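Can you give me the bound-state structure? Components:
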Amino acid sequence: MQKQNFELLILGSSSAAPTSQRNPSAQLLNVAERFFLIDCGEATQIQLRKYKTKFQKIDHILISHLHGDHFLGLPGLLSSMHLLGRKQELNIYCPPELKEIIDKINSVSDTRINYPIKWHFTKNKGLNLIFEDDKVEVHSFPMKHRIFCTGFLFKEKPLPRKIDKFKLEKYKVSVADIHNLRKGEDIINEAGKKIKNKDLTIDPSEPRSFAYCSDTIYDVDLVKFIKGVDLLYHESTFLNDKEKRAQETFHSTAEQAAKIAKLAKVKQLLLGHYSARYPDIDDFLKEASPFFNNLLLATEGKKIVI
Amino acid sequence: MQKQNFELLILGSSSAAPTSQRNPSAQLLNVAERFFLIDCGEATQIQLRKYKTKFQKIDHILISHLHGDHFLGLPGLLSSMHLLGRKQELNIYCPPELKEIIDKINSVSDTRINYPIKWHFTKNKGLNLIFEDDKVEVHSFPMKHRIFCTGFLFKEKPLPRKIDKFKLEKYKVSVADIHNLRKGEDIINEAGKKIKNKDLTIDPSEPRSFAYCSDTIYDVDLVKFIKGVDLLYHESTFLNDKEKRAQETFHSTAEQAAKIAKLAKVKQLLLGHYSARYPDIDDFLKEASPFFNNLLLATEGKKIVI
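Here's the bound-state model for the whole set.
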């Protein structure tokens, strides 16, 4: 059986003011063909087209907080989804005031949206399960920023056990029992003999996980929510030359992001949300490398297989 | 003296849903180094950067109406102007509800704008002077669309008279009198003799004009406002295959735009606001050509010297 998808596409890597190269925050996560759009800065719909994604497949949009560079692309995307004939429900996970803004814009522009939107308002305490199905679960957790802000944690559900094909014939297992084997059950074979699951299967890969942390001050309280994830996206708006400014504006430096990654023992760290003042983002890699050694830089169009 | 600038830069040529090639409505007009941003669809600030304009020089933003594809780029642009240190006043000409939307977004995101914004609310009757200085005057006028919508008319002020340099010496005119000659006055020369203005100067070029009409149903009532302009931008959302749809949605076809241009006896017609359903915009040119023969197609990045 082919491994299910767990892929992240970067749509925007810039902080507040976009540059000619970098767009405001947005990422598209595919977990087993469930598509999650995480933040939706201005021009996200244009990025989604540029990278040839099928944006009608997005059934979940998660907005971390209500600074413009994280949500101003939403009204236009909702309208385009409507204009292009969407009928199926869309789920939006966000702070409550976002609904007020969208309602206001749609009312003033006399815009009707011909598909149902289900709003899920995020909370400012603890880890909260906000979505779950047979393949994936999604949680929100609070972050320390200038305004109410949450991170998001995506975890695969435990994968089915892997069947050792060579043993199926040896133990005379019927095809009908393969499903039960994957679930971890023992079975009775064609000869009427009980066969233990562990004699026929091997452990599946560990469920994979991704945590999204944008925007936040350096905050060790985050560590408990993101412990051991396969990929951590942690904002790094500034370099150390602006550490004071990072603190004042409730943002992080590349070094601070790396230290959080190390404390949380994550497998890989993805940096992004770069201030427009830095023309060369390799400097973020240089600053973070001494503190954490499995690093990636978010750049528009980059695809990361988790 | 060099002719003063009168130049239009197209930032977006698409109607409601942008495509991978076309952005929502926005145009930047330079009249004698006064910069007017006309409509501000999503990602306008990114387009302004892409085409290397100095967006802090924009002191006037005009919004025709409150469909998202004409204003959703404004909140982000206002924020970026602030982040990049703007101090000088910005004038916004728009329907009143736009201020409510901007106020709501800025309040929810705790965004402070550190420069003054002066709001000028457009009216739904007649030709209204909304801006004037020594070089240019700008008027708004009502258009027939689904919601309240105005067009804009830009006219150069009469240009100074042109001085015939060869005659200055012949008639012994002092340098100090050149200014008075430009204004059209007669002068007394160095020999104490009165010299008529018309003996020293020639007529300046005619003041130029540009009219912006987006979005509108086919509407001959427009003609009186845009009569004889040097350049008319008139929306052409559809081709004739969708004439019925154009009427239902209060938009125009390319043929209808050309007919308005002919009735108004304008010098040149610029088409734009193309529906995403048309991959090849040359079809707009083909449809309009039999009805008007000095035609341009709006495309992103196109600069038109008026």
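A couple of observations. Chain A has two domains: 6-159+208-305, 162-202. The first helix of chain A runs from residue 44 to 50.
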